[in-house]
Amino acid sequence: MPTVKLVLEYDGTCYAGWQRQPAHPTIQEAIERAIHQVSEATVSVVGAGRTDSGVHALGQVASFRTDRDCAASNWMRALNAVLPKDIAVRSSALMDARFHAQHDARGKLYTYRILHRPARPTVDRAFVWHIYRPLNEAAMQQATATLIGSQDFSSFEGSLTDNTNPICHLQRLAVIRHDDQIYIEAYADRFLKHMVRAMVGTVVEVGLGKRTPKSLTEVLMARDRSAAGQTAPPHGLCLMRVDYD
């Protein structure tokens, strides 16, 4: 039975995240419903990561197994014909039966967008965190350097999780200015629940002068969510890509 790999793009504004849940619309549910519409098969779709409610994606990866004899490119065209306008399949491929979108992932890149200007956003209001107060970008960059490496990120993990392994290898956490926008890029082998948004919120507090860059060492050592800063709003976050061997 072949496995189909999908690369997905979506606007997460109207969804309660990736993972299927009762009484709330989710990306996983929408994909599974679309597959059923085009193939009359009931499948379970696996996502590379469980994006939170309101988080977006340009390169989420999903996989499912099917006994339907269908060319790889046909899945993309068929699913895009029935999916909601805020979800699209960017590509589809037939993989070895052992391929698993989540377990085989080796790295994920997230980008968080901050609009840094006095005027509030209009066109991009659902995709950026608007901050109008002055930000010390040099201090923010110094703070991000503290978090690089293979470390226990318990202080940046959201509550109500069954995860038992808090160690992540954070390979990149960069603060990049482009005109009136600040991009914070995070790349790691894996991320804990709310980890990127908690790191962003804490780094922004450094930029606002509410804490020092060196204090992030103490935050890591605390292994306690209350030691870190606020959780940044979900709508500024986007899953850019998922890497595999």
Summary?
The chain is of the alpha+beta class and 245 residues long. The protein has helices at residues 27-39, 72-82, 137-147, 195-207, 215-222; strands spanning 3-10, 46-47, 56-65, 87-95, 105-116, 129-131, 149-152, 167-178, 181-188, 237-244. Helices cover 23% and strands 31% of the residues.
What does this protein look like?
With 245 residues, this protein is an alpha+beta fold. It folds into 2 domains: 93 residues, 2-Layer Sandwich (Alpha-Beta Plaits), CATH 3.30.70.580; 139 residues, 2-Layer Sandwich (Alpha-Beta Plaits), CATH 3.30.70. Strands 1, 2, 3, 4, 5, 6, 7, 8, 9 and 10 form a 10-stranded mixed β-sheet that branches. Helix 3 packs antiparallel against helix 4. It starts with a strand and ends with a strand. The relative contact order is 0.19. The mean pLDDT is 96.
